[in-house]
Specification:
The protein has 258 residues and is an alpha/beta fold. The chain is 34% helix and 23% strand. Keywords: ATP-binding, Hydrolase, Iron, Iron-sulfur, Metal-binding, Nucleotide-binding.
């Protein structure tokens, strides 16, 4: 994809750590910094990006140039979005073997009319399977971001996700680690922090994989409720999570420049 300058994948070893939340809001934060941004939902079996952007019922138009068809991505919040979720029914499960799923995401990437893009964010499915390997070996990736929560069970799986990027034949730079659900602060007690999933896990993982901790995102109930309504963190009244993603975008931009 010669019109795409930088491709960043967001990965985790397990589901439920907030990888899609990080992918979506990082993409929006980059767009708010004036970047031309694309977001690819590579989770074939459980696409959540259309719901998080409130565009689940949208269907991307198709343009024809000669004998070649190109899919036009859906755009919202300044981000061009593509997901297999646009082409399936909400309750329809894709019963595909790994190679078929990997080929479908590759075709989705190749047949979409992206235009000029400064940053493409790819939301990986959990784990280290066919889809991840196909993307890592097919595209010239700028780097990877590892998402985890502080508790040890999430760290154990995040280590496995990180190990894939340093494997011979893949060798994708790890930009850093994002620790999600780092602490909870009740509205009634804004100066208090409750580390309900543990403390320091993201920093520990970053040190183990010789990387950096890009940021810590607090656990805010509004974020999940807003995502179900297709709203970003930037519509929230709780500014701690807004600041977290603004800082994350700045650190990613700086890291990519380096």
């Amino acid at each position: 994809m010669p019109t795409v300058k930088n491709i960043i994948v967001v990965a985790s070893g397990k589901g439920g750590v907030g990888k899609s939340t990080v992918s979506a809001n990082l993409a929006i934060a980059l767009a708010r910094n004036g970047m031309k941004v694309a977001l690819v939902d590579a989770d074939i079996y459980g696409p959540s990006i259309p719901t998080m952007f409130g565009i689940r019922d949208e269907r991307p138009p198709v343009s024809v140039l000669g004998d070649k068809e190109q899919i036009i991505p859906i755009e919202k919040f300044g981000v061009k979005i593509m997901s297999i979720g646009f082409f399936t029914k909400p309750n329809q499960g894709l019963i595909w073997r790994g190679p078929m799923a990997a080929n479908s995401i590759k075709q989705l990437l190749e047949t979409t009319e992206w235009g000029d893009i400064d940053y493409m964010v790819i939301d990986f499915p959990p784990g280290t399977g066919d889809i991840q390997l196909t993307i890592a070996q097919s595209l010239n990736l700028t780097g990877a971001i590892i998402v985890t929560t502080p508790q040890e069970i999430a760290l154990a799986d995040a280590r496995k996700a990180a190990s894939m990027f340093v494997t011979a034949g893949i060798e994708v730079p790890i930009i850093g680690v994002v620790e999600n659900m780092s602490w909870f602060t009740p509205k009634q007690h804004p100066t208090e922090k409750y580390f309900i999933f543990g403390e320091g896990g993201g920093a520990k993982l970053a040190t183990e994989i010789n990387s950096v901790l890009l940021g810590q995102v607090p656990l805010v109930m509004e974020v999940g409720a807003a995502a179900d309504k297709g709203m970003s963190v930037f519509s929230q009244t709780e500014k701690s999570v807004v600041t977290a993603f603004e800082d994350l975008a700045e650190k990613v931009l700086s890291a990519v420049e380096v």
